[in-house]
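User: Can you model how adenosine-5'-diphosphate sits in this protein?
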Amino acid sequence: MRQTRSDGTDLLTTEELSKYFIGVRALDSVNITLEKGEITLLLGPNGSGKTTLISTITGFHKADRGRVILEGRDITNLPPHQIYNLGITRTFQIPRPLKRMTVLENLMIGVKSSGDGIWGSFRRKWLEEEDETIERAFNLLEFLGLKRLAHHPASDLSGGESKLLELGRALMPDTKLLIMDEPLAGIAPQLAEKLLNRLREIKELGIGLLLIEHRLDLVLPYADKIYVMAEGKIIAKGDEEVLDEPSVLEAYLGA
Ligand code: ADP
Ligand code: MG
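Assistant: Here's the modeled complex, given as structure tokens:
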């Protein structure tokens, strides 16, 4: 696959990104480019390296080779919280709400206040920021259709609602790139459509999305670009037609 070189206008690129575990090349010189306002779908059979790729982009794994570039800036191997603060957020396959906290509190925690660590004169500013955070949280709850549950403990939520809350948490900071690992797993088709429509609206705000998702029937109409991985490598890139490529069919049959 041709090597991509960032010219600084791409949202995120990886260059020859590689990650080795003992005996496994989980990522083998991976080059991808993600754009603002696009939904990119990452496909591949089990064990092909998809989760390792997003964990390496987000700093949870250290790359052994190669680079991750966010808007022209080298962010390779920065610690996860720094990458998060730069605007890359992710959701997990299994949502992890803090069940004893309310839905609203789940959105509020973890959002850094820029007043933090500087005491006193910033208290007023901090309070204003808290108001802003609450307002942002309520706006997101409205957007996700969860507002009526704001003051309920997160343990009251159904599986699908937990997914929406997880999405809300990932959108609380000023997100530039949202990465989701199997957002549709285990949710009913009707809710899946609702979630996908929300993702389309998010993309229209100029946010980039990277989705790992197996439910192709649901997700394909929403994808702007597709990458397919097998054995740690990108083996195909393009639109829906890549699914008919022999290398892709072979990868899925072989797995
Ligand atoms: P996918 O998400 O596409 O199913 P993964 O990224 O989870 O694939 O795994 C890619 C390969 O790396 C697999 O062979 C897997 O066994 C291996 N792997 C993933 N995480 C680890 C780890 N923490 N330690 C050792 N091997 C790992
Ligand atoms: Mg995985």
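A couple of observations from the model: Helices lie at 50-57, 80-85, 103-108, 123-144, 159-171, 189-204, 216-219, 246-254. Confidence is low (pLDDT under 50) at residues 113-121.
User: Helpful, thanks.
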